[in-house]
Amino acid sequence: AISTSTVIGRTNPGGGRRVPVGLRKPPMRIVVTGGAGFVGSHLVDKLIARGDSVIVIDNFFTGRKENLVHLFGNPRFELIRHDVIEPILLEVDQIYHLACPASPVHYKFLLTSTSEVYGDPLEHPQKETYWGHVNPIGVRSCYDEGKRTAETLTMDYHRGAEVEVRIARIFNTYGPRMCIDDGRVVSNFVAQALRRQPMTVYGDGKQTRSFQFVSDLVDGLVTLMESEHIGPFNLGNPGEFTMLELAEVVKETVDPSATIDFKPNTADDPHMRKPDITKAMEFLNWAPKISLREGLPLMVNDFRKRILDEQK
Ligand code: UDP
């Protein structure tokens, strides 16, 4: 769902000279909307680790305090329960927008968009220049069109209000802290295999996705924010897998006796998805480092602990 809001404040609390955002040296004060979520909490860890002060704004619709509890008591960390569709007054240097759109005036603003802007793509792999193939009235179009609108608004803020903006198009991402039961394929397969239930493959399982480990994404987001480039940039791992191949990797990693149960697929499911990351490699000098086979065990360890906790 998309709503707009205003985050108001000044970049230079001391007043006077305005330091160009790109040249500002850490430590900075940074807002992460959606910072209690899966990707957000990993991003917060990285920013805190490098010495910045971080304010998380999260309404906990899908975010979880457990993702941040290790930071409670850290003087450089603050957590605000707040829905970003309501205005909030804060003085910060940068905003990573992982929740909903906001319209700051003097900050650098990074929108986390999505590979879903390409819809069920007719171009493969997908380059940033591809305008996409989205069914505007389909069951998943609220997400796709919502993010497309967010990109439009972000560019309008840039052109109209001269907001310094960044747009990342995030491809399928997995890793520790992912919601266990929100129905994504990697989390479903891993949780199912750990619970000794069959892995549910939708359709014939020949549709493809390209899975990136969360730390690669977080590196990409920070690199993009710090760069001189607006984007959009695809951030994803070009390693492409069918859902059947993914089930095989999960089986190898979690339980060699895991089985598959075929279920009907949802409408408008994209048949294939793979990022062309040439642009990010060239302009951001960024590329993912962790393959699915390397990253999956790290997620499995986290899921194993959480699923055992549930059973206590
Ligand atoms: N999928 C599946 N089994 C599941 C959940 C998803 O086979 O238990 C398939 C789904 O049909 C889609 C792919 O996995 O083709 C990726 O789905 P997900 O919701 O993880 O990501 P998205 O479709 O948003 O890329």
UniProtKB/TrEMBL annotation:
Residue ranges annotated for the NAD(P)-binding domain, each copy included: 107-297
Keywords of this entry: Decarboxylase, Golgi apparatus, Lyase, Membrane, NAD, Signal-anchor, Transmembrane, Transmembrane helix
Cofactor requirement: NAD(+)
An annotated GO BP: D-xylose metabolic process
Organism domain of life: Eukaryota
Pathway: Nucleotide-sugar biosynthesis; UDP-alpha-D-xylose biosynthesis; UDP-alpha-D-xylose from UDP-alpha-D-glucuronate: step 1/1
Record-level Gene Ontology MF annotations: NAD+ binding; UDP-glucuronate decarboxylase activity
Protein name (database record): UDP-glucuronate decarboxylase
Annotated source species: Dendrobium nobile (Orchid)
